Structures are given as structure tokens and as C-alpha cells.
Amino acid sequence: MRARKNIYWRRRSLAEVPTIVLTGYTGAGKTTLFEALTGEKGYVDGKPFATLSTTSRRITIKGKTLIVSDTIGFIDSLPPILVEAFYTTLAEIAYSDLVLLVVDISEPCGEIKRKVQASLEALRHVGVFEDNIIAVLNKIDLVNNGLEEKIEIVKEYVDEFVLVSAKERNGLEILYDKIYAKTRKYQHLQLMINMNLLKKIWKILRKTKILSFQISDSTAILKIEIERSDLKNLLYQLRELDGNIKIKPINTSVKVRA
Q1: pLDDT at position 168, please?
Q2: Residues 32 and 41: beta-carbon distance below 8 Å
Q3: Per-residue pLDDT averaged across 115-137, rounded?
Q4: In degrees rounded to 5, what are phi and psi of residue 90?
Q5: What is the Cα–Cα distance from 206 to 210, expressed in whole angstroms?
Q6: Which of 57, 95, 193, 234 could serve as 9's disulfide partner, Cβ 3.0–4.6 Å?
Q7: Domain annotation for the chain: domains and CATH numbers
């Protein structure tokens, strides 16, 4: 099953159709948001494991075709029977171009902070940077007070967020705009590389644009711009090199090449 899934996602990546994955804790409203984005009708009851497999659909935003997927949600203690489904979820998230981290903003502040932290830890484990995440703060229709405090908690961890009510279909136009911008944007990275690796690095960076280059002691510091479609392959090649290479995403405003 895992092998078939990996082949499927590699083929999807080669087709160069941007992929968006909805993730987050169970009960945050991922499936309701999926329905709002796609018009698809699924099983929604707000209980854990209402979504046990990934559902994917094509959508169009401003003439751009994308694939959006609803996945099994995160939980604190994963039953053994769901390990395979959770592996598939992590693999699909790793292959995606954009992650929508759905957060139940109606929950208490402590729960929001704990779940955002846990979700981001799981995403980092599969190589997803915060720069590639939009936090979708769902269920604003259920928030009567304390919204600003809850937003500030999320902003400690994720730069980009959108307030929505998937159930009431509120805030979706702003989310569409952010999805459109994110799937067009180039990724900016800072690389800190041992000088001994420079000869090897230039070939790997042939598809990037070098924004800046400086040397500090025995370390070369490069800022680069790369197409998102080439990002995963670049990261793989960099991590295959011997030596300590530090890779840091740089948050930038949306930038589109002519």
C-alpha cells in the first residue's frame, strides 16, 4: 500500500499540478473545509477518525488547477490499527506543495497552543517548513470573545493565517487568494555551507537564483530563490552531501517571476 501511494504521489508531482493538503487535529473541521473548497459531500460528525483515508479532488482558483486532499487528523495517542493510515497521511503531506493547517479556534487558548505545537512538530518531522503552511483558523462563528488572544498564540508559530467558518462558508475568498499566491510563489532559502563543499554545491544549485553570497570564517552563507516544483529535489540533494549544511526558509512577500 505504501509503495503504491508513493508512486501515485510521485506521478502527481511530475504532472506539475500543485497539491494542497488539509491537516490538523481531528475535530478541527478539515472535512467541512474540504467540502467548502470542493463542493464534495462527505461524512462529517466531528468525531475522531471520521476521515480514515485520503480524499482528493481537483479545484480551480482564478483559472489555476490544483489538487486538494483531506487527510486523517492528528491525535495524541494513535491506535496501532491506524498506523498505516497515518503513515500515508505523513507521506502525502511531505509531497504536497502547500499545507492548510486547520485549527479549531473556538477551543480554549491552552488547547490551541498545544495542538498547534504538536501539529508543527509532526510536520517538521516530514520536512514541511512553516513558510509552506497556512493556518486556517476555523469555527470563528463559535467564538464570542478572546479571539485576538487566540490569534496571537497562532502567530507565535505560523506567519500566515486566515479566519474562516467552513460551516458558514465565511472567509473563503481570502483563503482562495492566499492559496493562489502561495502556489505561484518561489521559495527563498538561506544555506550555511562548509567551504569544503562549495565545489559540489554549485552543480546542485544550477536551477536556483543566487540572491546573495558571503563568507564568514569557514562557512559560506547563500540566499537563494528556487521554484517550488524543484524544492523537494534540491533539499534531498543537499541532505545527501557529507558535511553540516544548515537550511533555513526565508519569509518573503509574494514574488512572481515574469
Answers
A1: 96
A2: no
A3: 85
A4: -65, -40
A5: 9
A6: 95
A7: 2-182 (3.40.50.300), 187-250 (3.30.70.240)
Starting at the edge strand found earlier in the chain, the sheet holding 187-194 runs 209-216, 219-226, 187-194, 246-250
Cell of 23: 491537516
Give the chain's radius of gyration (CA, Å).
19
Burial class (CB in 10 A: 0-12, 13-18, 19+), 4: exposed
Q: What is the DSSP letter of 249?
A: E
Arithmetic mean of pLDDT over the chain: 80
Query: 30 CB contacts (<8 Å, ≥6 apart)?
Result: 22, 23, 24, 51, 70, 71, 73, 102
74 C-beta neighbours (distance < 10 Å), count: 21
Cell numbers standing for residue 164: 474562516
Give the span between the Cα atoms of 21 and 91, in whole angstroms.
11
* pTM for this model (two decimals): 0.66
Q: Which residues contact 144 (CB under 8 A, 6 or more apart)?
A: none
